[in-house]
Structures are given as C-alpha cells and as structure tokens.
Amino acid sequence: MEILPHTTYMTSLFHTYPYFHSPTKIAKSRPAFKASVLGNNEEVHAIRITPKLHNQQEIPTIVESKRSLQVIRALVDSRKPSSELSLLEKIFKTINSYIIKFLDSPLHLSVDPSYILSDNFAPVDELSPTKCEVIHGFIPPCLDGVYIRNGPNPQFISGGPQHYLDGDGMMHCIRISDGQPSFCSRYVKTNKYILEHQARSNLVPNVIGANTSLAFFGGNLYALCESDLPYAIKVEEDGDITTLGRHDFHGKLSMNMTAHPKTDPETKETFAFRYWATRPYLTYFRIDACGNKQPEVPIFSMKHPSLTHDLAITQKYAVIFDIQLGADPMNLIRGRRLLSVDPKKVSRIGILQRYAKDESDMMWFEVPGLNIFHVVNAWDERDKDGQDVVVLVAPNMLSVEHFFERMDLMRASMEKVTINLGTGVVSRHIMATDNVECPVINPAYIAKRNKYVYAAIFEKTPISSRMIRTIGVAKLDIFASEDKSDQHKHTVASRIYGNNCFGGEPFFIARDSENPNSEEDDGYVVSYVHDENSGESRFLVMDARSPTLEVVAAVKLPRQVPYGLHGIFIKEKDLINDEVTT
C-alpha cells in the first residue's frame, strides 16, 4: 500500500504535533498513535509520530514491528479485540491521560471539543430513512429527487485538540417522491471511519474525513474533502445512502482533490485541482463527461503554498487563486502550525486556458488582500478593443488572520473582479458588506454571465472562537448598481429565519431545468434550519423570485440536523443505482 506523504505529519487539518494552544504559549505535544488507512483495503500501516515536550526531551519512539501490525490487523479483521491489543490500547490511553492531566495547559477554545462541539455543533448518530411531515405548504414537483448536505460529525472525539472542520463526514439526506419526504443521516464510510468503527476509538488523522461537500459528475455522486480522494456514494430507492468506496479514476488520481470541482452544464466536463504543501503546490486537471480523468497540468508558477479551496471556470479559462493562507512543511521544523497566514504575501489570480496541456500561457494578476474561499461564478467578456476580459464574482474573506482561532472575527464582502487579459488592468467592485458567504447560483449558469446570487447571511454577534452560524439567506443582483456609495442595492431579497434559528448554505433548484427559456431565478432556494429554542430542525423551501423569499414548504425533520457545510440537489431522473468502478 502506498502511504500518501501527508500521513506522516498531518494529524489535524489545523493542528499538528507539536502544536500551539495559542500564539503566545509554549509549544506542547501529545503522543499520537495513528494508523493510516489511505489505501484501498490493503495492509494497515501503523505510524508512530515522535513528538517533543516543551523541554525538548523526546518521548521514546515506539517502532511498530510486524507483530504489532498483525495485532492491528486482528482488530480490523475481527470484532473481538485481542488481549494483546487491549493492553496496547491501555498503555497509550494511560500515557495520553497523563500528558493531558499533568503536562498540557488548557486547550484554546477554538480547538476544545467540549466547547466547539456543543449545542447544534455536536455530532449525532446515524438515522435510517424515516418519513417526515410537511407542516407548511406543499413541496413543488420539481423537488422530486434528493437534497444531501455534508459536514463534519466526528465518530469519536480524541482527548487532544479538534477544530470544528475536523471529523468524519456525515451526509444528511432528504429524499422527496411525489411530494412525500423521508430523511436519513449516514456517515461517509471512509477507510478511516471503518477502522475506527471496528476499533471503537479515534486512531486516524481527522483531516481525511470526506466531510466537506458532494459533487455529481460523470453520472456518479461523490463525497469530497480536499485532503483525500473522492468517495463514491449511492442513493438507494428508499432514500438510504451507501458508500461504495474510495475512487481514484482507474488509478489516474493518486492523491487528493478539491472539494469544489466545477462542472460545465453544457459540455458536462468537470474541472478540478489539488493543492499540496510541496511543489508543485497546485495541479490542475479535467474530467470528461464520461468521468474519465485527463492528464494533469502542474502549476510550478505558484511559488508558495496556498490553501486554495475553490476555482472558477469560464468558457475559455480556468481561474485559480493564490491566497495568503498556506501550508508550509518547514513550519513543522520551526515548531509552528503546518497551516499559517502570510500577511506579507500578495494574493494573486491565475488565468489558465481551460484545455491547457501545460502552464506556459498562464497569466498571474496581483489582487492585494483578496482571499477567496468560495466562488460565485466567472464568465468571459471583451473590451471595446476586442481584448479578452474575465469577470469573477466571489466573497472576499477579510481578517483572514483569524481563520484558526477566532473565526467569529472573520467577515466577508462580496466582490466583482474584472480582469483585462490584454491590458493587465484589474478592477474591483464591492457589491455587499453584509457578511454573506457560502454563495450559490442557478447551476445552469456556471461559466457564463449570470445575474443572481443566493448567499448565507452570517450572524451579527457570533460566539467567541466558534464557527459562525447563518441567520438567513440573501439574494443579490450582480448588476443592480455600480455606485460605491450604495452597496445595499445589490441585495434585492432576503429572509431571516427567526429568533435563535440558524441555517446553512442555501441551494438553488430550478423549476424547469429542461426549459432553455426559463428565467434565471425561476425556482426555489432550500436549506436545513435549526431552532435552538425548540431543538427542532426543518427543511425549508423558499420561492426564489419572491422579494421576501417566501417559504412555500416546511418539512419537520425527525431529529435535529447539526450545522454543516456544503450540499447538492440531484433530480430523480439523474439518480443512478449502478456501482462505480474504482
């Protein structure tokens, strides 16, 4: 089995061993006994990370012998834990408890599981398909299909630091048939999940949890996380969800992949990339309409690591982001986080031909202070002289230095960026400063000029060091006004969920996606919403054309749905039951 490079040093997306509790405290460490399960049901490979205590004395390294591997394999292959492994587990638990009790200072709130995984951020158990009640209005026929949302839901919580974005992926799925909904929750059954489920303990780095998003391309559905390969997912007839396995596109994708690929609605091609902590820091690639991965294009002109989370495409180009947040392996040697913010770095936008075979024609444009995590859309235009122009719309994450420990202090402004490829001139227009993020559009308009954006509205006074909750959804008109003194004109509709009610990323579903003459906003916006007063969660369906985003249907869900990340809607006709060839 090939062990991917990051398993030797990454134990958490946000904290490594050694890690800092806060920027001003002494670095401390906990011993970490981890097992990599990045291979496809091959030999389990144990890894022992040797951390240092604050006095720089090393904890003795335990080199895993062949016998030790056999012991771990016995755990994986049998539901009866061996006495030998039980003893080994007791030893490590004792060491871990000792360090937590006597050597470690309190965890920073941002990575303290007892703090960040409380209330409706707390993980929940799986739930088999359960019928739901429509308590308001009726569900439009165009919603026949499934809406699935992914998000972190740790199966086991370790005694060490844990960021909210760590953890196993759980999919919350509502399937609608003839207006009748059913709901279920299932883990993405990654190799990590399976091993830990059998071990009944946290063993593997949280970073490989397939917990971020879902994408449907090449006729197949995938659960995605940018630090691992995709996992193929199957929706059963009764609305249940099955994980088919880790998918490497017939051996052509050996490492990780972005959680935000872009699929052209006309050509059905999918465009993606992966980033890494060593050169090439980013690699671009394409997947054809049949799901076949095409040759990769390494981007060596990206000179420094960048935590590039998303990309945009136009009819001609791929748009790539080089932001101030990055991953530098040398930080581990310096006793710092693997991931860090470089305040001196100037952010850049890279423009690459969509079907480029190499990066020789790539163009880079400096955009100081522009840190893009999620893209709205991009499209091609021409100036009066016939020069190519790329227009990009995306939220800009402000105060990115708070990304690790004070996400509650981060803010987002919606920007329209125009890049003239001929003159090199970049112009920026702030559309909204209302702290909106997690934007979506009508998927039929990806890579071409669109007018409307639907985005989550962040709460005004978030709780310290907690993930920011969303209090509603806003509809923005990109072309409403270019007057800098009146940025609120871009917001043409909105809905606030109510007192102590919070949702997540919205999703747009067209009323008639097969009709080329349909208006861009003719459809519905959906989201899970949780009432923290009653403890009840609902699935809301809102009229996208209404000035108040009127709720046309509300479904009472059988149990609370924790706040999560990104979702997808798949029409009934597109659901398939064939297994993916891995």
TrEMBL record:
A GO-annotated cellular component: chloroplast stroma
One Pfam entry name: RPE65
This protein's UniProt keywords: Dioxygenase, Iron, Metal-binding, Oxidoreductase
GO biological process: carotene catabolic process
Cofactor: Fe(2+)
Cofactor-binding details, from the entry: Binds 1 Fe(2+) ion per subunit.
A GO molecular function held by the record: metal ion binding
Protein name: Carotenoid oxygenase
Source organism of the structure: Lactuca saligna (Willowleaf lettuce)
InterPro entries membership: Carotenoid_Oase
